[in-house]
TrEMBL record:
Domain Lipid-binding serum glycoprotein C-terminal stretches: 264-467
Protein name: Bactericidal permeability-increasing protein
MF terms in GO: lipid binding
Similarity section: Belongs to the BPI/LBP/Plunc superfamily. BPI/LBP family.
UniProt function note: The cytotoxic action of BPI is limited to many species of Gram-negative bacteria; this specificity may be explained by a strong affinity of the very basic N-terminal half for the negatively charged lipopolysaccharides that are unique to the Gram-negative bacterial outer envelope.
Cellular component GO terms, alphabetical: extracellular space
Disulphide-bridged cysteine pairs: 153-192
PANTHER family: BACTERICIDAL PERMEABILITY-INCREASING BPI PROTEIN-RELATED (PTHR10504), BACTERICIDAL PERMEABILITY-INCREASING PROTEIN (PTHR10504:SF84)
Record's subunit section: Monomer. Homodimer; disulfide-linked.
């Protein structure tokens, strides 16, 4: 794992497309804390790769005289980062601070003096009170995905202590000054580049952000960044496009997102704000793709229903149908005549749809004879929920209104068909729509991201998904 949870949501370099987002993502202090835990693990692994070069030289030691010495094979055996903090800096970005860190090394020593006397042994060295401070920026690439970099870093070694194994006590005085100075220079030069590497290593993970996420065979949704994020003292807001498109045809919706603002909630790590703009672009994309139409046949009606799609049943309400086309099965074509409209009000999702219902008699040679066309205006209420990494829903019928558009069989009372059409909507159309809605569409995600403790609220003009996050790999 890595820093990728919170690095994704910190932007210092602006993205300026000058448009309102359809989706907002807020990372709270709780989310930053989770990201800190993952990030510290990554930095700790990087610090284990520090290379300490051999140290050798000559020094006069009274009363021995000139002593040749060397320290070699210095390897890191432990790295500890017990104290760390990550904080958003309002208007700028993220600061990661590490304190009271330590590094333990083991190595070999060797001396030669009085020309012929040689001695050797091993030593353990502790670097204590190590402090690291770094600022991290995230940029946008040409696809709207984030890339990260360390923009500043400072590292300071507090103290160095050494314990020698074997040899005389004067060795400590000989080596201490040289070890302290040499180790300070070596570590302080290597730590910041390694921290920068740990940050850069996140870029392959960040490229897994589903900027273009396929929904089904008809549509996909775009989550590219549309404006620079807002960094406050307690959270970071990221603005995403949140627009559906027909696959293979990125036609912009004929309406624009309006500004909306997330409430000051902080119980969860992450909040998704999905404006009404986003599902309305879905309705536009499906309608443009011709996906909002359905042929309804008798085999879709439950066998227990006394109402059948045939000229006998319809002839009960419209006698001329039974007279002109006796004993024939029928088929209905339901298709939208304009893009459905989705609105959000507190605790309520409403979809208004206008469609036509064309009734056909199925001739013995399977040709279709049109009987009439009805205007159908419906209103349904929706409930939203999160299933894994997808936002899904289900709807129920509120009301339905029928008027006659065209008749090929003469005048008749349209209201006489209310019961038939309500049955068709409730037992065929709504269940099929709910199967589709239950599949949902993907939320913004990076890698193997899992949402836990998730709640969905419907507010005015947008939905709010509050959730905690886990990474499974």
């Amino acid at each position: 794992m890595s820093l990728r949870v919170w690095l994704l949501l910190v932007v210092v370099v602006p993205v300026t497309l000058g448009t309102n987002p359809g989706v907002k993502v807020r990372l709270t202090q709780k989310g930053l804390e989770y990201g800190r835990q993952l990030g510290i693990s990554s930095i700790q692994q990087k610090l284990r790769t520090i290379k300490v070069p051999d140290i050798s030289g000559k020094q006069k030691v009274s009363p021995i005289g000139k002593v040749e010495y060397s320290l070699s094979n210095m390897n890191i055996v432990d790295v500890g980062l017990p104290k760390s903090a990550v904080t958003p800096v309002a208007g700028t970005g993220i600061k990661l601070s590490i304190g009271d860190a330590f590094i333990h090394l083991h190595g070999n020593w060797r001396v030669k003096y009085l020309r012929v006397i040689k001695d050797s042994g091993s030593f353990d060295l502790s670097v204590n009170a190590l402090a690291i401070s770094t600022s991290i920026a995230i940029h946008s690439d040409e696809t709207g995905r984030p890339t990260v970099s360390s923009v500043s870093c400072e590292a300071h070694v507090g103290s160095v202590s050494v314990k020698f194994h074997g040899g005389a006590s004067w060795l400590y005085n000989l080596f201490t000054n040289f070890i302290d100075k040499a180790l300070r220079n070596t570590l302080e030069k290597q730590i910041c580049p390694l921290v920068a590497d740990a940050v850069s290593d996140m870029n392959p993970h960040l490229k897994t952000l589903n900027v273009i996420a396929k929904v089904d065979k008809y549509t996909e949704i775009e989550y590219s960044m549309v404006t620079s994020p807002t960094v406050s003292e307690s959270s970071i807001d990221l603005s995403l496009k949140g627009e559906f498109y027909s696959i293979g045809k990125h036609q912009e919706a004929p309406f624009s997102p309006v500004a909306f603002f997330l409430p000051p909630q902080a119980n969860n790590m992450l909040y998704f704000g999905i404006s009404a703009y986003t599902p309305n672009t879905a309705a536009f994309a499906y309608n443009s793709a011709g996906a909002l139409s359905l042929y309804i046949t008798d085999d879709m009606i439950p066998q227990s229903s006394p109402i059948r799609l045939n000229t006998k049943t319809f002839g009960t309400f419209i006698p001329q149908i039974a007279k002109r086309y006796p004993g024939l099965m029928m088929k209905l074509l339901l298709q939208t005549i304009k893009t459905p409209n989705i609105s959000f009000q507190p605790n309520n999702v409403t979809i208004q749809a206008s469609a036509t219902v064309t009734a056909y008699a199925i001739q013995p040679n399977t040709t279709l004879t049109p009987l009439f066309v009805l205007n159908l205006n419906t209103s349904v209420s929706g409930k939203m929920f999160v299933s894994e990494m997808r936002l899904a829903g289900a709807v129920t019928l509120n009301e339905m209104d029928l008027t006659l558009r065209t008749s090929y069989i003469g005048d008749f009372q349209v209201r006489s068909l209310d019961n038939i059409l309500q049955l068709v909507l409730k037992v065929v159309v709504i269940p099929k729509l709910n199967v589709k809605l239950s599949q949902g569409y993907p939320l913004p995600a990076i890698g193997k991201m899992k949402l836990v403790n998730t709640q969905v609220q419907v507010l005015k003009d947008y939905m709010l998904v509050g959730t905690d996050v886990q990474f499974t790999g």
